[in-house]
Amino acid sequence: MQMAAEPFLIGNLLYLSPDFKKDTFYPKKISFMSALQFLREKAGVLVAVVIGLALFIFVIGDFFGGGTGQSAKARKYYEIGTIGGESLSYQEFETEVSNLIEIYKLSGNTSLDEATTESIREQTWQNMIRERILDNQ
Q: Which residue has the higher pLDDT, 70 or 122?
């Protein structure tokens, strides 16, 4: 009874006997091209999963963050002062300045120089401080 010789490994070398039949050895050889083909076929799903997971984490993080994300940073950025624990925003200040400038223009003074504008801004700032202090008492 003659048995077919089996291939054997020594180190990194695979030795085959002369009477070895090719049909008895089935190692799946993966070439570089077949690996690229596999990535082409499956990469769309992988990319979709990664993007979906990133979006999910982003939304959940923003939901559970309690407003401590970008909106809180923006509020802090535009905050120009705090009086009695109440913050003053730049938008509020500019709205008040614009209102005072309009009142000044309606009173007959159509031209505003830099000193007058600065005086109006200072007056607005003092009024806002005064109002916040009086509201807290």
A: 122
90: phi then psi, degrees, rounded to nearest 5: -65, -35
Lowest mean pLDDT among 10-14, 18-22, 58-62, 92-96: 18-22
Whole-Å CA distances, 34 to 3, 6, 26, 45, 80:
34, 28, 17, 18, 62
**Do 120 and 97 contact (CB within 8 A), yes or no?**
yes
Label residues 108-132 b or e (16+ Cβ within 10 Å = b). eeeeeeeeeeeebbeebbeebeeeb
| CA–CA dist 133, 128 (Å, integer) | 9
Mean of pLDDT values over 101-118: 85
Per the document, the length of the chain is 137
Q: Where are the alpha helices (DSSP H) in the chain?
A: 32-64, 70-78, 90-106, 114-136
Residue 34 one-letter amino acid: S
